[in-house]
Amino acid sequence: xxDFTHLAKGKAVMVDVSxxxxxxxxxxxxxxxxxxxxxxxxxxxxxxxxxxxxxxxxSAICAAKKTSELIPLCHPLALENVECFVQFKNHLIVIECTxxxxxxxxxxxxxxxxxxxxxxxxxxxxxxxxxxxxIRHIGLKSKEGGKSGVWKNTTKVMSL
Amino acid sequence: xxDFTHLAKGKAVMVDVSxxxxxxxxxxxxxxxxxxxxxxxxxxxxxxxxxxxxxxxxSAICAAKKTSELIPLCHPLALENVECFVQFKNHLIVIECTxxxxxxxxxxxxxxxxxxxxxxxxxxxxxxxxxxxxIRHIGLKSKEGGKSGVWKNTTKVMSL
Amino acid sequence: xxDFTHLAKGKAVMVDVSxxxxxxxxxxxxxxxxxxxxxxxxxxxxxxxxxxxxxxxxSAICAAKKTSELIPLCHPLALENVECFVQFKNHLIVIECTxxxxxxxxxxxxxxxxxxxxxxxxxxxxxxxxxxxxIRHIGLKSKEGGKSGVWKNTTKVMSL
Amino acid sequence: xxDFTHLAKGKAVMVDVSxxxxxxxxxxxxxxxxxxxxxxxxxxxxxxxxxxxxxxxxSAICAAKKTSELIPLCHPLALENVECFVQFKNHLIVIECTxxxxxxxxxxxxxxxxxxxxxxxxxxxxxxxxxxxxIRHIGLKSKEGGKSGVWKNTTKVMSL
Amino acid sequence: xxDFTHLAKGKAVMVDVSxxxxxxxxxxxxxxxxxxxxxxxxxxxxxxxxxxxxxxxxSAICAAKKTSELIPLCHPLALENVECFVQFKNHLIVIECTxxxxxxxxxxxxxxxxxxxxxxxxxxxxxxxxxxxxIRHIGLKSKEGGKSGVWKNTTKVMSL
Amino acid sequence: xxDFTHLAKGKAVMVDVSxxxxxxxxxxxxxxxxxxxxxxxxxxxxxxxxxxxxxxxxSAICAAKKTSELIPLCHPLALENVECFVQFKNHLIVIECTxxxxxxxxxxxxxxxxxxxxxxxxxxxxxxxxxxxxIRHIGLKSKEGGKSGVWKNTTKVMSL
Lengths: 160, 160, 160, 160, 160, 160
Description:
The structure is a homohexamer. By secondary structure, chain A is α+β, with helices and mostly antiparallel strands. In chain A, 29% of the residues lie in helices and 30% in strands. Chain A is built from four helices and five strands; from the N terminus they run E-H-H-H-E-E-H-E-E. Chain A has helices at residues 40-43, 46-64, 67-70, 108-126; strands at 23-34, 79-89, 92-103, 134-144, 151-152. In chain A, strands 2-3-1-4-5 form a five-stranded antiparallel sheet, with helices on one face. The model of chain A has no long low-confidence stretch (mean pLDDT 95). The interface between A and B is large, with 64 and 64 residues.
């Protein structure tokens, strides 16, 4: 288990990555929106479902590119790919987001922000019909690259 | 229960608010980060706890101001206040965010994005120590203003 | 015919709108991308056509909200609606964009930037297949509101 | 002739460039604004012409740096140079824009967005005097670098 | 003399302006760059001086519009005008910036940020020739509007 | 002493860095805010002082990442670290900012903008109590990397 590298000596700091090697990095995240009982596959036309899913995916890609603007201690990264998958399952909107870079630091936050904005965009677009909708979780599923190599999240919440 | 105003005729659209009256609006959201077992009050110095909490709060305020840049169908709003509260409780980071405006449309998304970025900033700052940390929920607690008046979320997840 | 209000006394200046009244404003623009011979309705699946059109429309809405960041002498405006329409006609992609606000200055540039970014997004998404694609025109079709009232563009290029 | 790489399997996607080599890239674009009959060299003082041209050029440089924020499926790129040239010729404003990078993907969109925003800034600054002004074309003139090597646009519209 | 309204109860907070009336606001700031001995009027051609001054002025206008993105506790404001003046005097670059709005809070920070970015842009553009150049001061000259009415800075540094 | 590389042939231009080698770069800047007589260590609680200092530091880090958006002729840079130090000394707020990258061009402007926004954030947060507060200087202390190697500022103003 590591240290709080962003709180060295009790101060909020960026991590100095100037001496780290550049390696290929991948991170996968997941998020889930609970509509509060509305089954979107039954309530929305096929066209509206596709439109909703496309808007969610585009918002995730655009957001991942803005990670270092929103998360104060993140480094700017040259993203090489962002992918987002969206599925409607009963009363849930299930989101996955993958980010890739070749860099000195990981892309966890890019993947996480992509999933978070995807979930918020979904919430925004259904909230007039589903005012009690809630984002149920956002978490990292796995990451690769850098000193720590491959890591997979084994907590229950992410296996949903 | 309303319609899917953002999916009129099966297309993703902004809602035309040009003919709506300008009213005072407030929205409150909540988010919760599960550290995965680490009690930050026991693990971090008082100074580091304060630094973490301040960084989280500042990130929420800055993010709320960027809502219309990130959520594709949101209108730009003249925010009149954003407040964020952060508490460390055992293995949880409990976040609340309030947004205010006088406008033709609500500030739900500003409050929600504030809480979401606060949660992501918290995750970013603890992830070297707590790699299995997860955002447990993000949801709207209440809103006021506009045609629908006062609304409170009564679902269980938000009472946590 | 007016003056060059942005070049008063030979200097590039914003126009001081502090004493102007706030009125309802609408502006409509059009743009056209020539694929260079490829008929997208024949070449792309229905699903890909919809996906292309949705991405173009979302990019227009997001771009219109960023107008004052990109056009140096534009005022920030509280946009009340942005709409974008996309049609594939033989070898053309025909784009229309409408912007609305209640403000002290017009929304022409918001409508124009929306159409321009829609056209550039279309170009970006087809350029691997249609390297010779070109944006054929971007222009204002009409505007309403403010001192000059209703104005319609009667030049030939816009009647295409 | 290539495929629609941004519409693989009918979905709008970024292109995964993680395995591509980094090469020197250059792209040149052109745009043309038709003032609708006004000859700026006769109507504007030398000082105002220079001020207009400088503002146009600066707007192009600043815009090219924001390409990945505006075009949803573009990768962020470390631009190494952006140049913009502006000429007033009778009733036309002729714009050229060149972008350079060393990267895994091309700079076409940076050059195109630079020229587009230059044209829109020109339109914005003359529209009070030339309300019927129109952007006549925006297109890629040439590009170098990457797998496809040197490419020149041979369509007529770009030879204007 | 007022309180530290941004540090109420020891926490960094936005000021809640929701109940304040909207009034006309003006703020004027000044900044000064010391070239470290180089007289730009003697060293640069007239054309280069104009180009430098125009770039500085445009950067100030664009920056003032981004104030609430950069200063964490600032409210977004609908700027109605930003003006910037630049003069070369011996080894000094003298900058003034004026911002106007009709709002619930003042435009001091917009005027200050405009002047600061103007000074930094000047520094950037001369630093290859004048590596020891320094920004000598940035300060508010006066403000009008709101509860406190007209205020003028009477400290010596600003009379330079 | 170098040339005005940003004003080649009398035009404001980016510097073409495409052929420069990538080297490790560091730049250190300093800024100083004069409160106009208020001793913050005596006037503010310890908690408020820390909160002020943290907000200032976070604003510097976030701003440095936005340098190429604000300074027209700056290249985008992959920042590898930004650090900001803040000290309250009698009636002064003393700020230092360090930026690091591995790139084809220097990080002076990132360090300078970090210090400038830190100073403006400080000014914003104390101005209700200290209306006559002024930024006293912003300057580069030293830089390393690139063709010119190590450089230290020896002018008096920076030794304050």
